[in-house]
Specification:
The chain is an all-alpha fold. It contains 3 helices and no strands. 82% of the residues lie in helices and 0% in strands.
């Protein structure tokens, strides 16, 4: 059940990212936290979420560099 809960929470975070891009940093942190919970439980992290994690990190680095 923990896996299903985390998947649901990640899906909610993705919706928030689409609707509130100004909160990107906070959403990035929350997403990383959920992915780390999956890893801590020994659950496999789906490749699309690993890809998302990498993209968010790159986007935030670019955003911070442009400031």
């Amino acid at each position: 059940m923990a896996f299903d809960r985390l998947k649901s929470e990640i899906a909610m975070l993705l919706v928030q990212m689409e609707n509130q891009p100004e909160d990107l940093w906070e959403l990035h942190e929350q997403t990383l936290e959920k992915l780390n919970e999956l890893r801590a439980l020994g659950m496999p992290v789906p490749q699309d979420l690993v890809d998302l994690e990498e993209k968010l990190t790159r986007d935030l680095e670019q955003f911070n560099a442009s400031k």
